[in-house]
Amino acid sequence: MNLLFFRECYDYTWLGTMTTRTASCSCGQLSATTSDNPIRVSVCHCLACQRRTGSVFGAQARFHRDAVTITGESTQYVRIGDEGSKAIFNFCPHCGATVYYNIEGNDADIMIPVGAFAEPGFPSPTFSVYEERKHAWVSLPDDIEHMA
Description:
- Helices cover 5% and strands 36% of the residues.
- By secondary structure, the protein is mainly beta.
- The longest helix has 7 residues, at 47-53.
């Protein structure tokens, strides 16, 4: 799957005015503050996301890079995806939590794990990928777009 496909935008105007949100690592040293609503929110069931998050899927929000301000020091980990693309994860060198990442070749966007916002009211996902690796007991919103 071509990861640049994920550049497609979804309409989050129903969220109302732009919201400033801050995602941070566990110790608070590394943070990402957004000044706009997400382009899209998605979940990924690939085994790499399961390992990276320690959960049964990864949930991430995509933002325009110019709407995100990064504060703090990060260490990077580069992972090669199933299709050969490189995902560059930025995590806190002190507590190890991933705060943001990007896909090589897509400099316009930045992805932030939804859990890093620690905001239960965050918009729900609209897109789900690698569902052939989804745990059988996981339920998704009825109106979510599916991509195997």
